[in-house]
Design a protein that fits this description.
Blueprint: E1 6-10, H1 39-49, E2 56-60, H2 70-78, E3 85-90, H3 95-105, E4 109-113, H4 119-126, H5 131-144, E5 149-155, H6 164-173, E6 176-182, H7 190-193, H8 200-207, E7 213-215, E8 226-230, E9 236-240, E10 253-256, E11 261-263, E12 272-273, H9 274-279, H10 284-296, H11 315-318
Parallel strand pairs: 1-2, 1-10, 2-3, 3-4, 4-5, 5-6, 6-9
Antiparallel strand pairs: 7-8, 8-9, 10-11, 11-12
Helix pairs in contact: 1-2, 1-10, 2-3, 3-5
The structure holds S-adenosylmethionine and iron/sulfur cluster.
Length: about 325
């Protein structure tokens, strides 16, 4: 059986932004509160999964920082000795005000999604976000040591391809890891993703016209990023080729949606209702057996190139 040591937990389907490739402007049909997993239910599930090998957790969403009391969940998960790493992916809007509380609760580090360093463009892509707030949030996270701070940049041809060098300059000056991620044909970006696809190999080539990169394996990551030091700079750069490099066979993760479905693959539309089992009072052994069965059936590959269609859940509902 392959080792699955990493779970991404979507703690909410709500978000304070509406990124054009992720959510429609009017949002999506939201879950009712009673259909969302409570913190106790998440905690009990993770406790049951520890003997199956789960050691690392990423909290995501929707926007995880809009889930009320998220610090409490982090504290609860942190109390499980076998959990080595708790990280979180955020759009950064609430980060400046929440960073200290998150760190105190036991968050290990943070990823911030940021697709443009230009205020007008930032508004175009997020519909109503404030770039200034996100940048302040990043600075705060660096200051208090939620490190390494990773900046996730979705690479979009014709939209932010003229900013790739600016992002590397930012990482040259600041202690951050900028990671370029290929736009995936998921949710709102289905029709456009192939047209706007910018292969990471081309991004790297472009960057190397200005910066010297040195491959490194000592940058901590739980995922499929290739990482490079920027020679002479403070930060580093990473590349995640979701489309051009299939990394399914080495995928070490499971996803848990806010309504308690285990999803073994981001792209394949198969989910298993673990919340029902929890609410039917399954024992920890039964929960673990249920999830181990799912891991055994985890797919060896996806067909992202075939597109997403409009019937499936959006990225904000799955957790990215
Ligand atoms: N709201 C948080 C945020 O934006 O960081 C966490 C959830 S968001 C769904 C997680 C990540 O998915 C973000 O980095 C976002 O840019 C990325 N994402 C959403 N739709 C995408 C797409 N079609 N292709 C590539 N990345 C996408
Ligand atoms: Fe919200 Fe994140 Fe989706 Fe943007 S990418 S709409 S911030 S969930």
């Amino acid at each position: 059986m392959r080792t699955i040591d990493y779970i991404r937990i979507s703690v909410t389907d709500r978000c304070n932004l509406r990124c054009v490739y992720c959510m429609p402007e009017n949002g999506v049909d939201l879950l009712k509160h009673q259909d969302m997993m409570s913190f106790e239910e998440i905690y009990n599930l993770i406790l049951a999964l520890v003997p199956a090998g789960i050691k690392k957790i990423r909290l995501t969403g929707g926007e995880p920082l809009v889930r009320n009391g998220i610090e409490k969940l982090i504290k609860m998960l942190r109390s499980i000795p076998e959990i080595e790493d708790i990280t979180l992916t955020t759009n950064g809007i609430l980060l400046e005000e929440m960073a200290e509380g998150l760190k105190a609760a036991g968050l290990s580090r943070i990823n911030v999604s940021l697709d443009s360093l230009d205020e007008i463009r930032f508004k175009q892509i997020t519909r109503w976000g404030s770039l200034e707030k996100v940048l302040k949030g990043i600075d705060k996270a660096i200051d208090i040591g939620l490190k390494p701070v990773k900046i996730n940049v979705v690479a979009i041809k014709g939209f932010n391809d003229d900013e790739f060098i600016n992002f590397v300059e930012y990482a040259y000056k600041k202690e951050v890891q900028v990671r370029f991620i290929e736009l995936m044909p998921i949710g709102e970006s289905d029709d456009e993703a192939i047209l706007k696809h910018y292969p990471i190999a081309d991004i790297k080539e472009l960057i190397e016209t200005k910066f010297q990169l040195e491959e490194t394996s000592d940058i901590k990551t739980n995922g499929p990023a290739e990482n490079y030091r920027i020679i002479g700079g403070k930060g580093s750069v990473g590349f995640i080729g979701a489309l051009s490099h299939k990394f399914c066979s080495t995928c070490n993760r499971l996803r848990l949606t806010a309504d308690g479905r285990i999803r073994p693959c981001l792209y394949i539309d198969k989910e298993y209702d673990v919340l029902k089992l929890i609410r039917d009072e399954a024992s920890p052994d039964e929960l673990r057996a249920f999830v181990e069965e799912i891991i055994l059936g985890k797919p060896e590959g996806h067909n992202m190139e075939d597109g997403w269609g409009n019937q499936r859940r959006k990225m904000s509902q799955i957790g990215g």
